[in-house]
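Posting this for the archive.
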Amino acid sequence: MAARVLVVDGANVVGSVPDGWWRDRRGAAERLRDALAARGGDEEVVLVVEGAARGVESVPGVRVESAPGSGDDLIVELASAYAERGCTVVTADRELRRRVGELGVRCAGPRTVRPAP
């Protein structure tokens, strides 16, 4: 059986902690990617980035997907593709949670992958 998939809403998770991320969105996305890679676990991790964070590279343990437009739309697309495998979307965005919930996909909040400071 294939591993479960964790799809992370990069912009939402980065924005959940006011640590100055707005000064360097790409750097903040890279720090999140590295933290996700360091957590280990047996799930496949997909980090979705958008805007100024586009182009962040994948690393072992974390595949980075750059959204060409709306990050939310790409997350819904990925959640739909992985729903049968077992997928959890990490976001606090209510509308996005509703959209992926309609696909039968579980949701978790940002603290699941990024503890509060």
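The helical segments are 10-15, 25-38, 71-82, 94-101. The mean pLDDT is 92.
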